[in-house]
Amino acid sequence: MEERHIGQLRKLLDILGNETRCRILELLNDRPWFISEISRELEIGQQAILRHLAELEDFGLLTHFEEDETEDRRKGRKRKYYNISPKAQYRMFISIDKDDLIFDLRTAERPEYFEKLVQLEKQIDKARQLPFGFMKLGAIQTLMNRLKEEIVTLAEARSHAIRLLEKLRIEFE
Fold it and tell me: What is the value of pTM for the model shown?
């Protein structure tokens, strides 16, 4: 096995071997959180949370975005939200042979249509940065329409795959 893969595996196991980082990943699995929310929920200081978030982000498990705070908060201040990276899917294969331990760690192969969603996500991040007004509303509406189209396309592909599966079942059962 390549030394690079062994290094990745060691780093991933180190990251996942820390209870706080695992708890952070568990929280972020449901929705994006900002630092003080994570700190309060886990009852751990913000500086420690920041160190864990930096390590998770450096490895590629997390991403972040900034968003303006609501009107009732101080104007101009942005909150930094963290979420699970769309590219943070890893596949691990471990095989124990009588003479050898074989393991392989790779980022999961992503189908081409995921790239379209990743591009849409980048466009959403850009739209968030626009000042509130007609331009921002127009950009958001356009992105919502494109996402709705993607959902329809994926639903049609799912239906087609289900029909093919049923066809195979009927033919070979």
Answer: 0.53
